Amino acid sequence: METYFHLGASERTPPYRFRGGYMGHVRMLRVDYPQNWGRLRELDFGRLAKFKREKYCCNMEWLPGTLGSEGGGHLVTFDTPHFAKAPLLEDMDLLREYLPHAESQAITVIAYLNLHWYSYEFAEEHPGWEQVLRDGRPYGRVRPLYGNGTTMCPNSPWREWAFKLIEEAMRTGIKGVFLDGPAVYPGCCYCEHCRKLFEERTGREPPEWGDWESPLWREFVKFRSETMVRFLRDAREAAKRVREDGVVFINSGAWPNWEVPRDVRELAPYQDFSGAEAFFHLGVEVDPYFQLRTGKYLRASGRPSVVFVHHAQGVWHYLPLQGDEMRLALAQTLASGSNTWTALINGELLEREEAWGPVRDVLKVADEHPEAFEGLEPYAPVGIYVSSETALFYRSRESGVYRRVQAEAEEDLVAKGGAGARISELSEQKATSDALARGEAYGVFSMLTHSRIPNRFVLGPDFRDLQVLFLPNAACLGWEEKDRIRKFVRDGGAVVASFEAGRYGPEGEPAEDDFFGEFLGAEEVHGTFPLEVREEYIRLRQGFGSFRPGDLVPRPTYCLKVVPSEDTDVLASFLEVTGQHYAPLKGESPYPALIVRSYGKGKVAYLPALFGEFYRRYRDGTVERFVVEVIRELLDGELQVEVEGPSSVVCEVYRKEGTWVVHLVNCGGDMKRPVDLVPATGVKVRFEKPEVKKVRALVAGRELAIAGGLVEVPRIDVYEVLMAG
Length: 725
Ligand SMILES: [Zn+2]
What we know:
Blueprint: H1 9-12, E1 27-31, H2 45-55, E2 60-64, H3 94-104, E3 108-114, H4 120-125, H5 139-142, H6 158-170, E4 176-180, H7 192-202, H8 215-242, E5 247-252, H9 264-267, E6 274-277, H10 290-299, E7 305-310, H11 323-335, E8 339-344, H12 353-368, E9 377-378, E10 382-385, H13 388-393, E11 403-407, E12 417-422, H14 426-450, E13 455-458, E14 468-471, H15 479-490, E15 494-498, H16 515-520, E16 522-528, E17 537-540, E18 552-554, E19 560-564, E20 569-575, E21 588-599, E22 602-607, H17 611-618, H18 621-634, E23 641-644, E24 649-656, E25 659-666, E26 669-670, E27 676-677, E28 684-687, E29 695-697, E30 702-704, E31 706-707, E32 710-712, E33 719-724
Parallel strand pairs: 1-2, 1-8, 2-3, 3-4, 4-5, 5-6, 6-7, 7-8, 10-13, 10-14, 14-15, 15-22
Antiparallel strand pairs: 9-24, 11-12, 16-19, 17-18, 17-20, 20-21, 21-22, 23-28, 24-25, 25-33, 26-27, 28-32, 29-30, 29-33, 31-32
Helix pairs in contact: 2-3, 6-8, 10-11, 11-12, 14-17, 17-18
Zinc ion binds near residues 153, 155, 191 and 193.
């Protein structure tokens, strides 16, 4: 059997290339009528298509090809002899009847096809199609989807049913299909078809769920991931049988994840967009760069990216998203170099200004100035490495990390901050390791974004134009990856590696190579420091950036005790543990907190601690400055574009031929839900190149004066785009 994982990484991952120019910049919209799909028969399609084009700046519309709501997941909205139609539509063929109205407004039509949510009645008509848990019970009977319904296995004969559905939808004349699902659900799949395929591959029965110590389990993790890739590949062929230039894409993950595998790096060769959800969920806290991070991650797959943002008030889907939340999400999506998508679950709101107003506020600049959104190359001297293998297989072998962490504010003269109960279950250890890897990557991204260091995610082997590559606890690396990373540094690049980067092989087994010693300069590891969130410090030995010798930096919670090799410079050390608040500080421990060494023509900096994970939790400014200044020291000369002013304004910089395109997003205000943005003033952009003579602000709609490379940006309500050359 063909196994995708056995391809070399370079075959698997298309070269990194921002292809925003593909099809032009796309702004997708979907409108549902779940309370009464029969409403579609009453609507004036011509008027609505025009409205969507003008008020939502939509140029690609998703029409329901199947219903996406309770009980109707298998019912289609168009005429075909092969599938049952939603009865409420009577004799209407939605896709064929809507298509000419959309085309008259230059709106491309694709169909939304539900491929994950089915009624129990439908499942009973097709025995053997459902996804099955280890104990033999169908997944959807144990954990009903959205409270009611089940899901089908992509290795069962249901896949042929799904491919036929794709073909029939394509025959209506639409441009493509979006596949909502399938997904391999947590705990799945142990159905007869999966068992058979797995046995053909390994000669063994599928293993118990979650046995992280068994090599067979690792095979099962890969098998689940490949199931998704194979399904998408064959779904794409089904669409292409009808239309060679047909578009197919799937609901991918916003970050690699072993439990529900749908990794854009693996799926990229078989889909036309890399898309993932970044919704506002229930709760008060807002992840300040959620859509920006998601868009940049998706874009790094080499496919045009699209970030999905529901136009819905969290779990109250019949109400629109709060105005500034929609504005912020769309502005971050545009700035990430991605295409946009929003969906009104309650179609009755379509013509209400509270629904379309915030969308139009942000998207109209992309509608009016497509040149600022198409064919851009990111200017990003810093890369953040994303390791899918780490997401799949990382389980730290450092027992010291497996304790609950207690951190509480000092209140009523009581303060806590240290290690609690042991974490001994394998599955909980895996979850802890996942959190450490993901938290570190997210935190490093947040630090760089907050400090406005232009960066991009790196999913594959393309290190082009990078000066610094950050390996944020990228623990599981293959030897090919390690060779490429070494070569990058030998040729003059710089690497910053943190915590257990490269300490394991691509399947999570402890690496038996010299990456830690020979490359990072860490000869031995003597376990971890106790997990503390208080009064523990790093002390600078040598000054750099704004730091002087003797300066203190908070010590992250998770730190390794490493013995540096002799050819490294120790720039900072961990202090000995105090173990309590307000304690007198102790002396330096023998263990470094930052070591730097030369390697070939380049430099390697190793941080044996999870600074990003710490920053993500506690947003400590000294830690941010420490890590960012390490990176600045390693950068080759000045950044070409720098932003001054409130750090709540984030920037993304692109090159387009001889022009700089600078996207500025105001993430400042009450960053709790409902988000209320405060307009940003006092923002200045400095262009290093003296050739920059002319700067235009596209949202403000005017030329800006430039003096000595410095431009004052007019007040930013949400978003501004500068074109400078
Ligand atoms: Zn199955």
